[in-house]
Amino acid sequence: MEALLEILSELHPDADFQTADRLVESGVLGSFDIVMLVTRIEEEFDVVIPARLITPETFRSAKTLYETILSLSEED
Q1: H-type alpha helices, 1-76
Q2: Which long-range contacts (CB under 8 A, 24 or more apart) does 33-38 make?
Q3: Pick from 74, 68, 73: which is nearest to 54 by CA?
Q4: What pLDDT is attached to residue 14?
Q5: Residue 73 and residue 29: Cα distance in Å, rounded?
Q6: What is the Cα–Cα distance from 72 to 76, expressed in whole angstroms?
Q7: Which structural domains are found in the chain, ordered by start?
Q8: φ and ψ of 34, to 5 deg
Q9: Widest pairwise Cα distance in the chain
Q10: For 48-58, what is each residue's pLDDT tens digit?
């Protein structure tokens, strides 16, 4: 989770990713941010995020995103 929080903080240092739970809806993460995140997450965690999971629900919070990463890691 720490690696993910670090990646998120690089994008928006002023955002509180530990408690925020509406990242897309509140405008903290935009479409360009999500593209950047997908790339960084795939590199950092050695997973592939399929297009079907690139949804506001997946990127709702750091916790939901991390849970997605863990589930993708378990599929290997």
Answers
A1: 2-11, 31-45, 62-75
A2: 34/59, 36/11, 37/7, 37/8, 37/11, 37/65
A3: 68
A4: 95
A5: 23
A6: 7
A7: 2-10+23-75 (1.10.1200.10)
A8: -65, -40
A9: 34
A10: 999 999 999 99
